Amino acid sequence: MEQVEASGEELRQQRQRVIGAAAAVTLLVLLPVLAARHLPLMDAPAHEARLAFLRAAIFSGQPSAFYALGSFFLPDIAFDAIGTMLVPLAGPEGAARIFFALTLALQLWGILVLNRVATGRWSAVPLAAGLVLYSLTVIYGFLSFNFGLALVPWALALRLRAGTGPRGFLVGAASGLVLVFCHVYAFAVYAVMAAGFALPRHGFAWRSLAGRLTEFAPPAALLLFMAQGIAGEVRFGDPYIPLKVSALARSFTSGSVTGDAAFIAGACLLLALIAAFARRRIVPSFVPGLLILSGLFLCMPFAVGFATYVDCRLPAALALLALAGLDVRIRHSRTAAALIAAVALAFVIKQVALTALWRSFDPLIDQAMTAFAALPTGSVVMTAECHTNIVFDVYGQYRARQPAMPHWAAFAAFDGTRFDPGGWAIRGQQPIIVKPAYRQAYTLQQSFPDKTCALQGLQAQLQYIRELAHRPGASPYYLFAIRVPVTPRGVAQVARGRDFALYTVR
Description:
single chain, alpha+beta, four-stranded mixed beta sheet, 58% helix
């Protein structure tokens, strides 16, 4: 009896230590968000500007000159739905910061809880997820996708606890329905892993397995009824294998050279610790799903219609789920303790480097926001950018994200009085629709090439903009040029900052 009580006390102390460590890791994970005034995520300004319109349309009933309200019955809607509830309290940027911080915390704690459910004990090893959280899809600002991905480990933990029978069916179907609204790819990751959980139980008894998988029918049916704007061109990279290897490497970048170096060091040290000083295994029920997701990464294209970086979304998710399914018992030794300390130090260095980098962007973002705030009501701000589109140009890849500026024109739309044609209003993907008077500007912006570095290309874009700007009754048009090394002719510069210039077209 005393031995059982001692074991119970040891388990309680172990749980307290792990939860205490998780709290410290959470604070470090959130440090860049807490320290910087703005979220320097590439897509964030466009999403935040959409919240500004939704706030006015839903809570104030104010009509917009640029957008009409569409439907919320869509996939990829998590940020819009939750952000719209937060924006009256915190404004567009504040709502995005809260949403993003919540996403990071849910992801970290979800991996920890899923590991506890899968292995039956508390372990600090899943906290290494902190090294992976700031990955490519995070710094690109795929907010709804990352929120859905953060819910996946929680849904899987609930599914494991629910077991078979009607209760398991209801939990699985409800989880799938929630994830469909978050993002279709998050639902796909959950479905693959949950289906994998069924395989060890049912083996190759296909009838039993098919019955087990019927819980995916309700969310799949819901998805069929939802309008989708993803249809279109499917693009693979060429050469295929080198670009897949590059996609694998890019998936884990945080946009910081120092941060990525710390990640590589921390990941290598963690692997050395697990390989040399631990008893280890992957929980068997995780193996089928991880193998299927790995195969999907190798087969998936870079882009499907408007959705890009399709394949790059999987490696970080795979790493996080592998940590959740890893059952590790570390043997105590001085070397093991030193390796643990080194992994922790690498994580701290990565987070401090990211915090310093994000804070360094604040003055530049403030300067751009001030320039946009001075533009007259009704202005239309077009964007041209010169950046590397060569996958193997490592320096260019970092420079394009320090900071990532393609959607900074959305800062002009935060008060709802100016139009950013670079924002998304894709029917079937976003709950807003561009009004006919501004549809030409929106279509023109979407048709611009990603790379505008030569004077000839820039002048050609300006000519198209002038044709819109000189129509009777047209709004004032401006061009926001990002890292463009040439100065356009026939326009007046109204603002300039590091790496950008703002020109008036009419």
